[in-house]
Amino acid sequence: MELKMASMKVALIAVFALFVTARADYVRPKTRKVLDWPWKSRESSGPHQVHISLAGDKHMRISWINEDGSSPSLVEYGTTPGVYTSSSHGESTSYKYLFYRSGKIHHTVIGPLEDNTVYFYRCGRQGPEFRMKTPPSQFPITFAVAGDLGQTGWTASTLDHIDQCKYDMHLLPGDLSYADYLQRRWDSFGELVQPLASSRPWMVTEGNHEEESIPLLKDGFESYNARWKMPFEESGSSSNLYYSFDVAGVHVLMLGSYADHDEYSDQYRWLKDDLAKVDRKRTPWVLALFHVPWYNSNKAHQGEGKSMMASMEPLLYAAGVDIVLTGHVHAYERSNRVNNGKSDPCGPVHITIGDGGNQEGLAHRYIDPKPEWSMFREASFGHGELKIANSTHAFWSWHRNDDDEPVKSDEVWITSLISSGCINEKKHDLRKILMAP
Ligand SMILES: [Fe+2]
């Protein structure tokens, strides 16, 4: 009997050891191919590439494309399938890019909408019917975060993992389609993300892969701006490349790494005004997203965020921004609270999450030794989830794409700056920078 028990123990230990060894031997997967997504012009006038985004308090912008020039920019909606009790008319645009001509791109704002409510809607008086959920007006709220998506097998895997989590809004810190001048790839990206982006708001800001300028012929962000219109007008910004919004007690800044950002720039002036207006009683948390990281110990893209950091870090610090989310580097890294290059309990936590799954592959090489502010770093594809539980606590987790499974690899509770006393201490001194003319 004793012998039998002993042999069972050995077997159990062996199984455990095998499991541990398997984890330790985890080999990061290779880049997957760009999805074969042959896009051809549709003969039908039906809506496609449908996506939604917040457009001011209790309003949502519905964006879609169709090939029929006479189709109206009309959205009908209601809380019961097939019963449309309200409707709104919007605007449409289109653009030409060398030999490419886009479909008719519609943007229609609907509302006022109830919070945390499922709505059914259709676009251009045609089917199919889409379903979306509006965000809550109070905590808790959960954000899904993934940058540098592209359209590869890994992108599909990341989107599938995000779809499995319960979240209210997708935040994307730049590099969407990797169209890189091939306009049809904007269309295929729109099709790829439609199932998710038509059901939860996708709030995006631009990366370098959105810039498609041709000297003397084309402005840099024409395709991106035409397709992914964000609520910049609603937030007093003059450019789709930077804006802000409030949701459920969170003020979110969507900044532009590829828009002018020195202290004489329009973006800087707008950011200063925007931060001066933040009311921490109404929005206890402040987040900032932009593409190029300021705190990055990966060898890829070293120093690229320097000029933006020099001008804007003092503003974010003075305003008490809690968390900064960036992309660009195709890996994951989370910092301690930092400011001015070193750990600081009153600075933001910086998270680089540019590992959505694009075709360029992962950035494997890191600077050693690890800087004191770097808490966790790994080159794998994946996505993040930020659940803001209440005015003082948020739970951040990073989910690595381990083969085709989402595996939680990093997690941390983050307490808000408002609860740590940092905001009060900064009030009289640092906030002067936000109030200066
Ligand atoms: Fe990038």
Descriptive report:
This protein has helices spanning 2-24, 153-164, 184-197, 222-227, 266-276, 306-319, 417-420, 422-429, 432-435; strands at residues 48-54, 60-66, 74-78, 86-89, 91-93, 96-97, 100-101, 104-110, 118-123, 126-133, 141-145, 169-172, 202-204, 243-247, 250-254, 285-289, 323-326, 332-339, 342-343, 349-353, 374-378, 382-388, 393-402, 405-415. Helices cover 22% and strands 30% of the residues. The chain folds into 2 domains: 48-133, Immunoglobulin-like (Sandwich), CATH 2.60.40.380; 141-435, Purple Acid Phosphatase, chain A, domain 2. It is α+β, with helices and mostly antiparallel strands and 437 residues long. Helix 5 runs parallel beside helix 6 (306-319). The relative contact order is 0.12. A hairpin with a 2-residue loop joins strand 18 and strand 19. The protein is globular. The strands form 5 sheets. Strands 14, 15, 16, 17, 18, 19, 20 and 21 form an 8-stranded mixed sheet that branches. Bound molecules: fe (ii) ion (FE2). Fe (ii) ion binds at residues 148, 175, 207-209, 291, 328. Fe (ii) ion (FE2) is lined by residues 148, 175, 207-209, 291, 328.
Explain briefly what this protein structure is.
The chain has nine helices and 24 strands.
Descriptive key words:
alpha+beta; Immunoglobulin-like; Purple Acid Phosphatase, chain A, domain 2; 9 helices; 22% helix; globular; disordered N terminus; binds fe (ii) ion
